[in-house]
Specification:
The protein is mainly α and 330 residues long. The chain is 61% helix and 2% strand.
């Protein structure tokens, strides 16, 4: 029997345990909302366009820097919605879910939802092992923690000047053998998606050229994409699976980060800081993760053992504090 769309997917629940919530409660938390999914996607695009228009009208360097950070945060939000599609969490209709997930990625060079899914499901199955593509990609000096303040600053600088983006795309090639086998060869939608993506790029290039909008596209889409978005991804990646001390078994695999208002606007939107909860119950959509966290915190075992950090600045301080005290990252 196939699991219902609101049920946890077995291929995402093989390794991460324990199970703390009753099945009926989990099923309730796993209910999807097509309206919320579509609303979040449309709102992010409206905010991106509004921020770009405002910064263009104000025509001041401070407004532009603020717009880069804000737009990068909204780009991050769109990619989190792609992540939701990879988990089949946008729409109950699987075909609609995959099409919208792919459409989200069309303005992002070198990213496809279905390709991302092939790497992301093994990340859930084999978390923080050498068969986890995300973990393997990060086995290099840039992801060694703890580190000094200077070491943390060097990561920030390389992301803000675009070096981090280059390293990210280069690193993806190294983990192809760990991805799930490509199951799309006989899928008629796959060919349509590839054709649609190609046509989108061609039409977008023609439209931008015809309307002479290359400068705004460069300033308000590509610059945030290759700078601030990379920094936001870096901080999220550190928070999720690095520099976690003093926990045992599954509680040492990832932390939950309670985002500040600044984090929610510029770095970590859509409740994605509740990452332990996401790995524990990947069937729960993004808009219910905060409620999931609240219910889990009422369980003494969970409350006593989870690694909980206040804000992403708190994560950075933990990385540096551990280096000063001789602590070891896990």
């Amino acid at each position: 029997m196939n699991p219902s769309p609101a049920s946890p997917r077995p291929d995402e629940m093989e390794r991460f345990s324990p199970r703390l919530l009753p099945v009926e409660e989990l099923r309730d938390l796993s209910r999807l909302s097509s309206a919320r999914s579509l609303g979040h996607i449309l709102l992010d695009w409206m905010l991106i366009l509004a921020a770009a228009w405002a910064a263009w009208q104000i025509h001041h360097s401070a407004a532009y820097v603020l717009a880069i950070a804000f737009i990068g945060g909204r780009q991050h939000g769109l990619l989190i919605m792609m992540h939701e599609a990879a988990h089949h969490r946008l729409f109950e209709n699987r075909r609609l879910n995959d099409w919208v997930g792919e459409l989200i990625t069309w303005p992002f060079p070198f990213i496809r939802m279905r390709q991302y899914r092939r790497h992301h499901i093994p990340h859930h199955r084999h978390l923080n092992t050498m068969t986890d593509p995300d973990w393997v990609r990060k086995q290099n000096a840039d992801w060694e923690f703890p580190r000094s303040w200077f070491g943390m600053l060097s990561l920030v600088v390389q992301d803000l000047v675009g070096i981090g983006a280059i390293k990210y795309f280069a690193g993806r090639k190294k983990v192809e053998t760990l991805a799930l086998p490509q199951p799309l060869n006989n899928d008629p939608d796959e060919r349509l998606m590839v054709v649609g993506r190609t046509l989108f790029f061609l039409l977008a290039l023609a439209a931008v050229t015809a309307t002479n909008l290359w400068l705004p596209v460069f300033l308000f889409w590509l610059i945030p994409l290759f700078t601030w978005l990379q920094l936001a991804n870096r901080l999220r990646g550190i928070a999720e699976h690095f520099a976690i001390e003093g926990r045992e078994e599954v509680y040492a695999e990832t932390r939950t980060t309670i985002p500040s208002l600044f984090d929610r606007i510029f770095r970590a939107p859509k409740n994605f800081g509740y990452h332990f909860e996401h790995h524990l119950y990947p069937s729960v959509p993004f808009f219910r993760l905060r409620e999931l966290h609240r219910r889990l915190m009422a369980i003494p075992e969970f409350r006593a053992r989870i690694h909980l950090t206040q804000g992403y600045w708190g994560v950075v301080r933990e990385c540096v504090a551990a280096s000063r005290t001789g602590g070891l990252a896990t």
